[in-house]
Amino acid sequence: MHPREAARMRDRASLSHIRAATRTLTLEKRATFDTSQKSYWLYWHYTGDFLFLLLVTRVAVLPSQQFVGCVAGNY
């Protein structure tokens, strides 16, 4: 498999993971940070025992927009 195809598949897998996390967390709050090239969305949801954080970065990659995110949770 071509390295570029493998990277594309990894991106798709992480994208569906982010979507699933967004659905399950029922996120209540959202903060948006705009820089010159990128937009950052920070979602948080506090259950009383756990604080779930979801940081989503939208990176402009030609020819398509690509979504990159990381989940930091359970503090």
Q: In words, what does this structure look like?
A:
By secondary structure, the chain is of the alpha+beta class. It has a single domain (3-73), classed as N-terminal domain of TfIIb. The protein is 31% helix and 48% strand. The chain has 1 helix and 4 strands; from the N terminus they run αββββ. Strands 1-2-3-4 form a 4-stranded antiparallel β-sheet, covered by helices on one side. β3 (51-61) and β4 form a beta hairpin. It starts with a helix and ends with a strand. Residues 60-70 have low confidence and may be disordered.
SSE topology sketch:
Blueprint: H1 3-25, E1 29-34, E2 38-46, E3 51-61, E4 64-73
Antiparallel strand pairs: 1-2, 2-3, 3-4
Summarize the structure.
The chain has 75 residues and is of the alpha+beta class. It has one helix at residues 3-25, and strands at residues 29-34, 38-46, 51-61, 64-73.
Strand content: over 45%
Number of strands: 4
Q: In total, how many domains does the architecture comprise?
A: 1
What structural class do the secondary elements suggest? alpha+beta
Helix percentage: 25-40%
Query: What kind of sheet is the major sheet?
Result: 4 strands, antiparallel
Order of helices and strands: HEEEE
Strand order of the largest sheet: 1-2-3-4
Q: How many angstroms does the end-to-end distance come to?
A: 39 Å
CATH topology: N-terminal domain of TfIIb
Number of helices: 1
General shape: elongated
CATH top level is Mainly Beta
Low-confidence stretches: 60-70
Rounded radius of gyration (Å): 14 Å
Quick check: average pLDDT? 59
